[in-house]
Amino acid sequence: MANPQELGVAVRQLSETVINRIAAGEVIERPASVVKELVENALDAGASRIEIVTAAGGKTLMRITDDGLGMTAADLALAVERHCTSKLAENDLMDICTLGFRGEALPSIGAVARLTIATRNESEPHGWEISVDGGEKSEVMPSALNRGMRVEVRDLFFATPARLKFLKSDRAETAAITEVVKRIALVHPHVRFSLSGPDRRQPFDLPAATGSDARLVRIGQVLGSDFVDNAMAIEAEREGVRLSGFAGLPTYHRANALQQFFFVNGRPVRDKQLLGALRGAYSDVLARDRHPIVVLDIDLDPHQVDVNVHPAKANVRFRDGQLVRGLIVGSIKRALVEAGHRASTTGGHEALDFARPNGIDPRGRPTAGYSGAGAGYRSGYVTPARPSGDAQDWRLSAFCPLQGGAGEGAGAATLEAARGDVVAMSFGGSDLAEEQVPFSGFNGLSADTRADAAPLDHEVEARPLGAARAQIHANYIVAQTEDGLVIVDQHAAHERLVYERLKEALAAKGVSSQMLLIPEVVELPQEDVNRLLERADELSECGLVLEGFGPGAVAVRASPALLGDTDIRGLVRDIADDIADMNAATRLCERLDHVAATMACHGSVKSGRRLRPEEMNALLREMEATPLSGQCNHGRPTWIELKLADIEKLFGRR
Q1: What average pLDDT does range 193-220 have in this prediction?
Q2: Which of 48, 185, 425, 642 has its CA 20 to 30 A from that of 481?
Q3: Where is pLDDT greater, at 88 or 426?
Q4: Closest CA to 181 of 299, 39, 65, 314
Q5: Which residues are paired to 423 by β-bridges?
Q6: Measured CA distances, 584 to 317, 324, 370, 540, 595 (Å)
Q7: Which residue has the higher pLDDT, 362 or 511?
Q8: Beta carbons within 10 angstroms of residue 97's beta carbon
């Protein structure tokens, strides 16, 4: 690296043009960054309609028109100068109540592109216009324009051609612009947003929404009606921090985190701490490679959050990050519990999408459905078969370290505590040994018809999961409801039930510790040692007992008994990293949850086990009474519902 003497001078003042281009490199990353800054300016000006036109992914043209307050000629001349803003109090840098406040966007854009601004304030007799071409400013000139502002940006990065090489394809840049507008539109339902241009196959238009449910309407416009149908309302407040919005059910998820929207005082953010809190909230109801969908608003005193930690204002820093994290985790977990056995509605829709008309009856109605790609067509009907053979023992032993409660009444599931906290889950009743009904060309068992043979209890049918009518393929329970049918995965459902009882027992009895014959000494940087010792009481409640062991080390005297023979050194280091990163020992909780989930999986009803009618109905009733029973421990749905009206449509009855 050359030193100042080699450059000929020790210190020199950079030109205004270079300063602006350096600032542009911080603020303007791609065309989407320009659109974000200009749309936020329009919103700060009180616009109710914002129109965006782009060409070549924004590289050659971006035009943003709004009906906001506009500017006077004097304000327009100052607006293209650096650090000129009307949105920030003179002596309070923390009292930020607008989206834009740094006064860098317009001069930064003008430094690397051809910028033209036309505006008119209602106090002016006509509009005014100014141009900035690669940092060169024109005079303010009269312009014909109604109330509002029109900002046109052409030839982005023409003044810094090297930046053009880092832009992606036109399609990718167009998609990035659309994503930015969607994020902003979600928190401003009263504003109409439209996106158009020659590189768009279809215009993107979000009409303004009004009324008490305007936010939900806008969410439906952006994320689709499926999210609205599968979302839980979130509303909570703690110590002046308010959380509101909607969170998707665990069974309604995505392969990436692109549909996770956080807003802090109306500002879209992508903050690592908030995303970490979201993962913690869904930790035991969602698979690790799946991501929930959420739209959440965090509102708090501007003095309690720093939004000026990043030039693009994408990250924030909370004064009390633990308070915000706890509010997010607690509120979503509470909503999940209140959702009970609820599962996403898309499961049934997806199942129906696989069905295709096949045979036709004498009246022109289809007689069967297509079972899916590559499965072939199936016609006719299947005669229910009954199991044959000797009487079987229907008692199920589940290895679960908890004390169980018991259900009441005939056929109710009972949890019987046994020595060593091993619980056996059993159902009363007789075996199902009956002669199998012969069926030509069909060798396997199809269903247990005892449930279908029993009289239908209409009171049970009115329950959310209905009355069990059959078991097919020795794993799926078919239940009849008042307006459709429900299909339950018995293994996945019982796995969740056992897991929830196990968690209740752990919460009630605590996590037992396993004393080490020889304390494990773990060497760590002193700052990590200090963090661990500060959390020693919290870790002790989870079964991990440690204490200081001189400078740069801790001695672990006991570990959680649930973990068995584990890598204590690795566990302690991971916990230290978690505390440093998120100020929470999440790694230990995750490991304990994983062990509990594994035990629940091994201790639940196995696929292939035939159930009696009483057992099926007992499982359905237990699901209705158990929180989070709509999905198993891996995030898969435990049941789906098919509405009778949809089934009748498949067969041409509607």
Answers
A1: 89
A2: 425
A3: 88
A4: 39
A5: 398, 417
A6: 16, 12, 50, 14, 20
A7: 511
A8: 12
One-letter-per-residue 3-state SS of 561-591: HHHCCCCHHHHHHHHHHHHHHHCCCHHHHHH
Sorted by where each starts, the structural domains of the chain and their CATH numbers stand as 16-205 (3.30.565.10), 224-339 (3.30.230.10), 381-501+609-650 (3.30.1540.20), 512-600 (3.30.1370.100)
Question: Which residues are registered as beta bridge partners of 292?
Answer: 253
Q: What is the pLDDT of residues 273-296, one digit of tens each?
A: 898 889 888 887 887 788 999 999
Report the DSSP beta bridge partners of residue 231: 248
Per the model's pLDDT, the better-predicted residue between 504 and 333 turns out to be 333
Assign 3-class secondary structure to 521-538.
Answer: EEECCHHHHHHHHHCHHH
Distance spanning both ends of the chain, measured CA to CA: 77
Tell me which of 453 and 208 has the higher pLDDT.
208
Q: Which amino acid is at 448?
A: D
Reduce the DSSP state of residue 441 to 3 states and report it: coil
Q: Are strands 114-120 and 148-154 parallel, antiparallel or unpaired?
A: antiparallel
Q: Which amino acid is at 6?
A: E
Give the integer Cα–Cα distance in Å for 308 and 328: 22
pLDDT digits (tens, 9 = 90+) for 109-148: 998 899 999 999 988 989 999 999 988 899 999 998 888 9
Comparing C-alpha atoms, which of 543, 538, 532 is closest to residue 578? 532
> The tokens of 446 are what?
């199809």
Give 517's contacts (C-beta < 8 A, 6+ positions apart).
none
Q: Which of 264, 227, 237, 205 is nearest to 49 (CA)?
A: 205
Which 3 state secondary structure label does DSSP give 69?
coil
